[in-house]
Fold this sequence. Notes:
- The chain is of the alpha+beta class.
- It has helices at residues 6-28, 34-53, 58-75, 80-98, 102-121, 146-157; strands at residues 128-135, 160-170, 175-183.
- The protein has a 3-stranded antiparallel sheet with strand order 1-3-2.
Amino acid sequence: MHLDYLAPYLVNLIAVLILIRGLYYRSYQRTDLFLTFFGFNTIIFFVAIVLNQVNLSTGAAFGMFAVFSILRYRTEGLSAKDMTYLFLSIAMGLLGATTGDIAKQSVMAAFILGLVIVLESGWVIKKEKSMEVLYDNIALAHVGQRAALVEDLKQRTGLNVIRCEVSELDYLKDACKVTLYYVD
């Protein structure tokens, strides 16, 4: 029985645990996508291992990765941050399976994790957060009233609102849905 894939999988698993449990969960407090992140990572890892054993190119493995990614993205509306973490999880599985050198795999995983840490920390640019609210002053929902709408949202929520988007207007209830974007 060949266990050549065991050490690379453990390095991969540790890297994905740090990525998803250490970074994603700490920032977004969501567990509903854990199965997706870890499942896709593991599937891609082992599919790439099998493809490498039958002498297919890395391009073929990357093609499989693309097929799995497209299938996942089409099943549910994921936010850009969730899709990014899913892509990182899948890419780590693919890199871990095709690298062939544990030291090189560890360096690449550390580089990816370091980049995510820097970008998620707010050191480079302040991290923008969003919140969807039901807003009751539909007069400010018009395009020409965005500055007034942002000011009103700042006063009502106490948040440092940078911008907002009006998504649904309900003239019968005199209300609308507004996604507001803010920084801490």
